[in-house]
């Protein structure tokens, strides 16, 4: 069995980390897995970058900028990522087809990696794992409460558009035409929420849609001595530490930094310090109620393991999440998570069992959840339950076996709409 995993990057961002973890887990089970990326940032020989010439290498570095050019006509667009995926000029499909794989497993493929129409040129059966909404919308990655994808998009709120036949309608129609040429494509929603969204979408109404989560190595992400972990980070031993983190944690509006700040103002526990990773300390500091440790970007799992084990609670106040890696990683280390109870977070956190799910988007309830988890009477049980939840539902061996069974069924033509 020969599998090709496709993602824009190999180790930057949640989708990349999830795709790479699946790739490595497949290899550990004796599957011939290769990973193809647009920009390779690791030195792993099992990961291939598809640019094969100096021109293509230079183009790959700027394609995400070129892909955004059509958005210049939308002066009222929001800061949420929108990908037209109109740019060709690469050989990624040729590289995939020349390898003659049994299955091609797509993950996050934007930032100019694919032109929408090029997807139909892939010869092998396709699994497409949804890490956000882009595959079934007219271009937005985070749709929030918009349900125009159940029709045919247009008048896009992410573009600030007032016209039916706008860029989102154009991208939607291009996808519709392309997907009709791809009958052997299986759509994988990582969470029940995004799986249900895909089932309601116009674009995927004629495709098989399943639900298999991301895998995580629970032997790597495991509970570790808290005192030692805090010493490694030089954190105080006598404080309650609250962790918040993501790529561009304080600047990405979807990650809920403003909601977190509002909730922290309502905490009644004064013995708290905040830890933030994914963003560096700003030049002009926010006025926060508690002392804050800024860690910048973390790129290795060992640092994350020691960090999760050094804190008392992780807070994910996101406005939308498909299946957040931070929650799975933290809980695998026995650290409870507090979040708003919606979207993909519902698959991971069990209210009052592995953490706390606050009413979306009630900052007072978010603060109550943090206070509740920090209570010593609740914390130890939550830690044990959190670890058990991830081991039982998301461990690499368990989840990867599901993917292998999927690949085998697709190769045997057992997958039916």
Automatic annotation (TrEMBL):
<protein>
    <submittedName>
        <fullName>Glycosyltransferase involved in cell wall bisynthesis</fullName>
    </submittedName>
</protein>
<dbReference type="InterPro" id="IPR028098">
    <property type="entry name" value="Glyco_trans_4-like_N"/>
</dbReference>
<keyword id="KW-0808">Transferase</keyword>
<dbReference type="InterPro" id="IPR001296">
    <property type="entry name" value="Glyco_trans_1"/>
</dbReference>
<dbReference type="InterPro" id="IPR050194">
    <property type="entry name" value="Glycosyltransferase_grp1"/>
</dbReference>
<dbReference type="Pfam" id="PF00534">
    <property type="entry name" value="Glycos_transf_1"/>
</dbReference>
<feature type="domain" description="Glycosyl transferase family 1">
    <location>
        <begin position="252"/>
        <end position="379"/>
    </location>
</feature>
<dbReference type="Pfam" id="PF13439">
    <property type="entry name" value="Glyco_transf_4"/>
</dbReference>
<feature type="domain" description="Glycosyltransferase subfamily 4-like N-terminal">
    <location>
        <begin position="12"/>
        <end position="219"/>
    </location>
</feature>
<dbReference type="GO" id="GO:0016757">
    <property type="term" value="F:glycosyltransferase activity"/>
</dbReference>
């Amino acid at each position: 069995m020969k599998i090709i995993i496709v993602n824009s990057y190999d180790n930057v961002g949640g989708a990349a980390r999830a795709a790479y973890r699946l790739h490595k887990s497949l290899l550990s089970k004796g599957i011939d897995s290769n990973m193809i990326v647009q920009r390779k940032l690791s030195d792993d020989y099992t990961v291939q970058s598809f640019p094969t010439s100096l021109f293509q290498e230079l183009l790959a570095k700027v394609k995400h900028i070129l892909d955004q050019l059509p958005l210049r006509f939308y002066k009222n667009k929001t800061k949420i990522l929108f990908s037209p995926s109109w740019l060709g000029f690469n050989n990624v499909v040729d590289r995939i087809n020349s390898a003659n794989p049994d299955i091609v497993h797509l993950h996050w493929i934007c930032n100019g990696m694919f032109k929408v129409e090029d997807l139909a040129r892939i010869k092998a059966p396709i699994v497409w794992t949804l890490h956000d909404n882009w595959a079934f919308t007219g271009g937005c990655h985070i749709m929030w409460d918009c349900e125009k994808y159940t029709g045919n998009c247009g008048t896009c709120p992410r573009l600030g558009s007032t016209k039916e036949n706008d860029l989102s309608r154009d991208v939607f129609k291009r996808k519709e035409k392309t997907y009709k040429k791809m009958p052997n494509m299986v759509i994988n929603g990582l969470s029940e929420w995004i799986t249900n969204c895909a089932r309601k979408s116009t674009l995927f109404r004629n495709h098989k849609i399943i639900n298999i989560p991301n895998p995580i190595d629970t032997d790597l992400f495991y509970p570790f001595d808290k005192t030692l972990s805090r010493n490694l980070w030089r954190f105080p031993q006598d404080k309650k530490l609250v962790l918040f983190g993501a790529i561009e944690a304080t600047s990405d509006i979807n990650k809920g930094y403003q909601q977190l700040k509002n909730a922290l103002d309502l905490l009644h526990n004064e013995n708290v310090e905040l830890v933030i990773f994914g963003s560096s300390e700003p030049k002009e500091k926010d006025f926060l109620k508690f002392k804050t440790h800024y860690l910048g970007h973390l790129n290795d799992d060992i640092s994350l393991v020691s960090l999760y084990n050094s804190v008392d609670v992780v807070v994910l106040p996101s406005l939308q999440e498909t299946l957040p890696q931070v929650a799975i990683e933290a809980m695998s280390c026995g650290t409870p998570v507090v979040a708003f109870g919606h979207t993909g977070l519902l698959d991971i956190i069990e209210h009052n069992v592995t953490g706390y799910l606050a009413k979306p988007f009630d900052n007072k309830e978010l603060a109550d959840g943090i206070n509740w988890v920090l209570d010593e009477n609740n914390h130890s049980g939550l830690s044990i339950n959190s670890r058990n939840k991830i081991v039982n539902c998301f461990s690499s061996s368990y989840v990867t076996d599901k993917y292998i069974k999927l690949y085998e069924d697709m190769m045997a033509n057992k997958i039916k709409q």
